[in-house]
Amino acid sequence: MALFWVLNCAILGIQCFRLMNKLEKLERTEFAGLKRNVPVPWSVYGPYDNRSDPEATDKEWEKISNIRLGVIALPDSYVEEKGLHKAQRFPWDGSKGVYLINAYHNLHCLLKLRTSLLEFHRGEEQSGSFAHVTHCLDALRQDIKCNADDTPRWSGYGHRITGVDQVRMCRNWDLLDKWPKTFPSYWNKIPSIENINERFSYCPVDSPYADQIIETLGSKHHLGE
């Protein structure tokens, strides 16, 4: 009887361990392994909406305006393992494809919408196309619908403001910034270029692709930048 009880406890312990392990895996994001373990309160009129100092606000947005880190080169073996679509070829290695991490695409779209709004507010000519702006608007709509955040935001600062100082659990953006460095594409946006591969030449001078880049682009490379 005692042995039977011990065996049952052992089996139950194993099942609990497997369940916890499964839940741990489900909680983490599939690619960078991020967890919602960073408490962040909702805020209003913070550094990204400082209405008393628009220049300071612009500087804060400028700090997050570079999305080049989000363009990565994934090996085909990794792509197959994760069930991703095969992408356009990385110019310096045919066994890799070029991908854009979704969070950085969303950030790009947010910045595009902000630029368009500011230009309209200031009476300036629109620098981007209307089609690009509406694409970004729809991209953010799709992500909002996909995430379906069901958090109830409390009210109390007037009928138009909710959720102030209410804490939610977020993923760590700094950790997200680290993950793409495992799969660098050395991409940077350059307007008006003759060779699209020039955008993928922003790599260290000691890069294994350096000779190939110089041979392909000549003096138009951006090694070391």
UniProtKB/TrEMBL annotation:
Please provide the record's keywords in A-Z order. Answer: Signal
Question: Which positions make up the signal peptide?
Answer: 1-16
Pfam family, any one: UstYa
What is an annotated GO biological process for this record, any one?
mycotoxin biosynthetic process
Among PANTHER family, the record links this protein to: OXIDASE USTYA (PTHR33365:SF6), YALI0B05434P (PTHR33365)
Report the family membership. Answer: Belongs to the ustYa family.
Protein name according to UniProt: Uncharacterized protein
